[in-house]
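Cross-check.
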Amino acid sequence: MATSSKVTAKSIRKVILTGGSSGLGLALAEPLLRRGDHVTLVARDPVKLAEAVHHLMGKVPGAKIDVLSLDVSGAEVEAGLATAVARMGGLDLLINSAGILREGYFEKLTEQDYRQTFDINYFGTLRTIRAALPFLKQSGRGQIVNIASMAALTGVFGYTAYCSSKYALLGFSDALRAEMKPQGIKVQVVCPPEFDSPMVDALDQTRTPENQAHTLAIPKLGVSTVVDAIMAGLDKSPFLIVPGAQTRLMAFGIRCFPGFSRWVADHRIQAAYRGPH
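Predicted model, tokenized:
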């Protein structure tokens, strides 16, 4: 697919994409590169980053790709992002896609599970935004997109660690949106259901039966559906991007009929219930 003729040199963005070596982050990189954006992929594993670049260059020859091996839960985020921005010559768009998932019965999850989940899903995003914000302000069209989850909109069996981190991320993003709007910086948050990704594939090997019954009330989406929704939302104004028609219907039900939504969820969970013992 050729880059659209509507994309001009002025509209080409300089993008930092965390979690960019696999899953949704890697899938998002391709359409950004196709439109001519200069993208820096951020992830912990330099080997996976190299593999990601090889994959993307095969899809988009001549693409402008940089990489940054960085742990968003570490102390080096500010210096690392400054280096990446200097290489690109600025920053217009930050997409926070780095995240982890811990699933299990509350009685069996450890405090470390909660701390690690929050340190990456919530504090990792916060650190990255704090480091990127001075450069986004200089852009004149700065934009922040945080990848949350449907688990930020409703409680999910087995996701006490994951839900709490994504609830926190959604609340943070909403408050940040209010603060950044007068400064001309756009903040959006994406709440997809489960979709095809290495993280979900790994979860499928160990998840509890109750979690499976609850989460798969919405069938898994293909990652392309999530990517298409995000790309469409980037150039529009919605704060909340919910990929998939069925997902949007579920989100509407959760918001407008919370009691009924919980009743349906409880019924599905009870039918599959095994418990921690």
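The two ends are 53 Å apart (CA to CA). Residues 1-5 have pLDDT under 50 and may be disordered. Passed to J.P. for a second look.
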